[in-house]
Automatic annotation (TrEMBL):
PROSITE patterns: HTH_TETR_2 (PS50977). This is TetR/AcrR family transcriptional regulator. The keyword Methyltransferase does not apply. Pfam families: TetR_C_7, TetR_N. Residues 10-70 form the HTH tetR-type domain. One of its GO terms (molecular function) is DNA-binding transcription factor activity. It comes from Rhodopseudomonas palustris. Residues 33-52 bind DNA. The keyword DNA-binding applies. Keywords: DNA-binding.
Length: 211
């Protein structure tokens, strides 16, 4: 195990991140203090600064950790047929939606919205840079690979991605953020992923490569 991995796995670091998450969500990023984070983590400022140079660095670590769980697997297989493409897409949809609607991620989005209302965009920028952008790059790469196999038309990739994520997410995130509906359960997530995949199947060219 290298030194960076040891630092990442250190339980003191984990305690600081958990305490910081609670304080950020409760008080907002700007109002949160390292003193309060240290108190809740039951550690010292000296220990905190061994791992993080600033409050902003703690936030960045929190967002990146959550976003790593959201991102598609680096082993997402290159599609070689229409059937495989759709099967992988449905599997990805289930995993993505499960993490995207996770209560901790919802709390971070609420924090980003609250901070934006106060004129601060740091949380939103971190969520976008570490969450949405890597996911879209990975999804676009997957669709590009499909286009190279003749499974989808390259000129339609942007439209297909837009429709796929629109159907997959729908109003679920908004309803979860507002608290008007409970988070989707496993069955509802599976149904939504299947629906988004069927939408792709209908939009794809009928003479797509079959393998």
């Amino acid at each position: 195990m290298n030194e960076q991995q040891k630092i990442t796995d250190d339980p003191r670091r984990g305690a600081i991140l958990q305490a910081a998450f609670d304080v950020f969500v409760e008080k907002g990023f700007e109002a949160a203090t390292t003193a309060e984070i240290v108190r809740r983590a039951r550690t010292s400022k000296r220990t905190l600064y061994e791992f993080f140079a600033s409050k902003q660095e703690i936030l960045t670590a929190l967002v990146r950790y959550g976003s790593q769980k959201l991102q598609p697997s680096p082993d997402l297989p290159e599609p070689h047929s229409r059937a495989q493409f759709l099967a992988v897409l449905e599997q990805f949809g289930r995993a993505f939606l499960r993490e995207f609607l996770h209560p901790e991620r919802t709390a971070m989005y609420r924090l980003a919205i609250a901070e934006a209302g106060r004129g601060g965009a740091l949380v939103a920028r971190e969520l976008d840079a570490s969450g949405r952008q890597p996911v879209m790059r990975a999804a676009t790469r997957f669709f590009d690979q499909a286009a190279a196999r003749g499974i989808v038309r390259r000129e339609e990739i942007a439209t297909l991605l837009s429709v796929y994520f629109s159907v997959l997410i729908g109003f679920a995130q908004l309803q979860t953020l507002l608290g008007t509906e409970p988070p989707l359960g496993a069955d509802a997530i599976a149904e939504r992923a299947a629906l988004a995949t069927r939408a792709m199947a209908r939009m794809m060219q009928p003479d797509s490569a079959d393998g």
